[in-house]
Write a structure and sequence with these properties.
Elements: E1 6-7, H1 36-43, H2 45-48, H3 68-78, H4 89-104, H5 106-112, E2 120-121, H6 124-136, E3 150-155, E4 165-171, E5 175-179, E6 193-203, E7 207-215, E8 218-223, E9 231-233, E10 242-249, E11 253-263, E12 282-289, E13 296-297, E14 303-304, H7 335-354, H8 356-360, H9 369-385, H10 391-402, H11 407-419, H12 422-425, E15 426-427, H13 435-446, H14 453-460, H15 467-477, H16 481-494, H17 515-533, H18 542-545, E16 548-551, H19 553-558, E17 570-573, H20 586-591, H21 600-611, E18 622-623, H22 636-643, H23 650-660, E19 675-676, E20 679-680, E21 684-688, E22 694-698, H24 699-708, H25 711-726, H26 737-747, H27 752-763, H28 766-776
Antiparallel strand pairs: 1-18, 2-15, 3-4, 3-6, 5-12, 6-11, 6-14, 7-10, 7-12, 8-9, 8-11, 12-13, 16-17, 19-20, 21-22
Helix pairs in contact: 1-4, 3-4, 4-5, 7-11, 9-10, 9-11, 10-11, 13-14, 13-15, 13-27, 15-27, 16-17, 21-23, 25-26, 25-27, 26-27
Length: 778
């Protein structure tokens, strides 16, 4: 939604504004009880179709997710257009009941035209993850490591000779200023020493990462690629003390990292010609700039002393996936996507060829090299296809391998054949219903990638045939960093914060709100989401109710908290009694605001659509908000009321505004305020619930309490989790699937991770269950 424009009506919350225009006619006031079906067929079907399917005049289907009570209230308030409010309560409810039950509601739509699980190709993230894990399956497997930081080795000489090693330890970060002192007093000279840090880098965001090495002396850095340094300042020239390089990384993965640093005797200051020349200071710092971030030291939580194998990161540029439904879908195939898969297959083939002996476990000239390369080709295809090869497939692989002019070319031909096969590019292309299909649904749902060895072994042994067996595997899979990255992105998408918004603000109104603060705010939000999701309770309600905000020294200063300037990120009870979890997190509040003032409309749309699941359709046009200087005495709330008071706007803004107003205590950068334009903030608002009950709230805390207990918010979150993990419509799994998941969510005390397990356990077996039922029919 445009940040500097105000959406105008009609937002289609339930039915178009022209619906039921003819209700003013004769039978609407008949003495007998109103008959909704008769009224609709007599006076509305000619415009909207007998079953609400639309006509040439009005093409939009009459469908949505509002309750009968909400529909009736909307019709009673806004219909007919030339005399709003003239319908009786009974008339409005009769028509709303018929429309809702006949074709408007989700249950009615499922009954009339059942949704199906759609054939889908791999999305861009899934493709990247799949080829990385496919190649990675031929490397040694990394073991998880709890300690944070890097393994450090300190040497008394410039050579990394184990005989000269004087200290081994784990360093939380690489950010040292030794000055003119030795890093290991008494064991290494301050004039000459070297240090090597090694381990793994844990990426939390997908995209371009900039790495920065700052030092006055010699240094070189390897990240992922172990053959060639990413930063090479080993031979110094000039007076440069900062060296940069950029690398694309995929979230949820560990990449090998090594940093070497050398302090030489010649690093002295010769400006003092008298007496002994003082040493030039010695310092070394390793920093990075994540996607949507600012340059800063790599935190210890992103470092591990345990080594990691090299990971393949596909360098190919793909066209973006369809995100119109709120999650990435692989339901469209374009010429550009097909070309990208060809380019990517060539990139993978080149990578495999350059490391062929390592991946296949052989060497040049070995007598069994051909046999091992042939075995590698079979395994490569089998792992790519996520199931054992048929005899015909094996024969095809062997023919491709044999057709190469040499062994390396034969392997390349097989890699290209496999990666262009629909059995790799599409999920469930065979439409099967066995354990291998279940394994793929699980792995793509929780990891966005291929099944691992344990999943495939379970499928082969028939241990993925019951819901309990699938749930046990899902619980195991959640311990993987890929699942942690997937769950974080799921929550960011729920908050509409997955795509970094433009948070530029008026520098005169908000001095100090710069790129570094914005970067810290995003990290703060991610830490908060991880903290709730991976706690023992994993309680969805705490995402709304918690008063804790992760702050560091820089954010503490800006948001007036009591932390020292150098403080690392930690939980702080900010604005005690006023904050409401993610709803009032400064990053979210700043994103749902204009450059110089808050935006109740953006916040209200987010709450209605994202948190409560109200089906808002985009407005037909946008109008620039009323400028504050046109009405200098009005508050933001008063200006929004003024701009949206027209009758044509009430359908939309009677829902949007009262929700958005409840967050008016938070300004355009998410700071708490008591006054707006020198007037007391009015944060009262409300919502008409599905049961017809009008809910009144005052401020963010009351709003959060309502949402935490709201069946509508629970249902909307459940549906979002299913959509994000499964990437299919919820109705494809039956008319009661979402209601069943919501009841399970409540029974499990709103446990987010258990919900993810339940979603996968329910959907992964769906086709299998359908196939087994069909076999029992005569």
């Amino acid at each position: 939604m445009p940040k500097h424009s105000t959406p105008l009506c009609p937002f289609v919350l339930a039915v178009p504004a022209f619906f039921l225009l003819a209700l003013l006619g004769g039978n609407a006031r008949a003495a007998e009880a109103p008959n909704g079906e008769r009224t609709y067929k007599a006076q509305c079907a000619s415009c909207h179709g007998p079953r609400g399917e639309g006509t040439k005049r009005y093409k939009q289907r009459l469908e949505g997710d509002r309750s009968v009570a909400q529909l009736a209230a909307l019709v009673g308030k806004t219909m007919p257009e030339n005399d709003p409010g003239s319908l009786s309560t009974e008339e409005a409810r009769a028509v709303a009941t018929y429309v809702h039950d006949a074709f408007y509601s989700k249950v009615a739509r499922e009954r009339n035209r059942p949704a199906r699980v759609e054939l889908a190709r791999l999305t861009v993230p899934q493709y990247r993850n799949a080829v990385a894990d496919l190649i990675g399956s031929f490397h040694w497997q990394r073991k998880a490591s709890d300690p944070r930081g890097l393994a450090a080795e300190y040497f008394k000489g410039r050579r990394f000779d184990n005989r000269e090693r004087v200290l081994q330890r784990t360093d939380a970060q690489v950010a040292f200023d030794f000055g003119t002192e030795s890093p290991v007093p008494g064991k290494a000279s301050p004039e000459q020493f070297s240090i090597r840090w090694s381990g793994a880098l844990l990426a939390e965001r997908t995209g371009e990462h900039e790495f920065v090495v700052r030092t006055e002396h010699a240094a070189r850095l390897w990240v992922n690629e172990t053959r060639q340094p990413l930063v090479d300042a080993w031979v110094k020239s000039g007076k440069d003390t900062e060296h940069k390089a950029t690398l694309f990384l995929v979230a949820g993965r560990a990449y090998p990292l090594r940093l070497e640093y050398s302090r030489a005797k010649q690093g002295v200051d010769d400006s003092n010609k008298k007496g002994k020349r003082p040493l030039v200071k010695s310092s070394i710092a390793l920093l990075w700039k994540e996607p949507h971030g600012a340059v800063g030291p790599i935190p210890s939580r992103n470092l591990s002393p345990a080594p990691a194998p090299e990971a393949f990161v596909c360098p190919t540029t793909f066209p973006p996936d369809d995100r119109s439904y709120g999650w990435e879908r692989g339901t469209t195939v374009s010429r550009e996507w097909d070309q990208a898969t060809t380019d990517a297959a060539l990139d993978v083939a080149g990578h495999v060829a350059s490391r062929l002996n390592e991946l296949a476990g052989t060497r040049d000239g070995a007598p069994d090299r051909k046999k091992k390369l042939q075995d590698f080709c079979h395994k490569f295809a089998e792992r790519a296809f996520r199931r054992p090869l048929t005899a015909e497939q094996k024969a095809t692989i062997e023919r491709q391998f044999a057709a190469g002019k040499d062994l390396e070319t034969g392997v390349k031909r097989v890699v290209l054949l496999v990666l262009k096969s629909p059995r790799f590019l599409y999920r469930e292309v065979a439409g099967g219903a066995d354990g291998f299909d279940v394994a793929s649904r699980l792995s793509f749902g929780l990891w966005g990638s291929l099944p691992d060895r344990e999943l495939l072994e379970a499928a082969a042994a028939g241990r993925l045939s019951s819901k309990e067996q699938v749930a046990r595997q899902a619980e195991r899979m959640l311990d993987d960093p890929r699942a942690r990255a997937k769950l974080r992105e799921l929550l960011l998408t729920w908050l509409k914060a997955d795509q970094a918004p433009d948070l530029a603000k008026d520098v005169k109104k908000f001095p100090g709100f710069d790129a570094a603060v914005v970067s810290d705010l995003r990290t703060s939000l991610e830490l908060f989401l991880d903290d709730v999701a991976w706690s023992d309770a994993s309680d969805f309600r705490q995402l709304l109710l918690s008063e804790q905000v992760f702050l560091n020294g820089r954010l503490s200063k800006f948001y007036a908290a009591a932390l020292p300037p150098s403080a690392p990120f930690q939980k702080v009870r900010l604005d005690a009694g006023r904050r409401a979890g993610a709803l009032t997190h400064p990053y979210l509040m700043a994103g749902l605001a204009h450059g110089d003032e808050s935006s109740p409309i953006h916040r209200g749309v987010f709450l209605a659509r994202g948190v409560l699941g109200v089906g808002l359709r985009p407005p037909p046009e946008a109008v620039t908000p009323i400028a504050p200087d046109l009405h200098p005495s009005l508050t933001t709330r008063q200006r929004v009321d003024l701009q949206t008071k027209a009758t044509a706007c009430t359908t939309c803004h009677s829902v949007i505004n009262p929700l958005g107003f409840t967050l008016e205590h938070f300004d355009a950068v998410g700071r708490y305020r008591e006054k707006d334009n020198a007037k007391a903030v009015d944060a009262t608002g409300g919502y008409l619930a599905r049961d017809g009950k009008a809910v009144r709230v005052n401020g963010a805390r009351e709003l959060a309490a309502f949402l935490a207990d709201s069946p509508e918010a629970h249902a909307a979150f459940v549906e979002h989790v299913l959509h994000y993990l499964v990437q299919q419509p919820g109705r494809a799994y039956g008319p009661t699937a979402l209601d069943d998941l919501r009841r399970s969510f409540v029974a499990n005390k709103f446990h987010v991770r258990k919900l993810a397990v339940e979603v996968m356990a329910s959907t992964a077996l769906h086709r299998q269950g359908a196939r087994e039922k069909s076999k029992k029919r005569p």
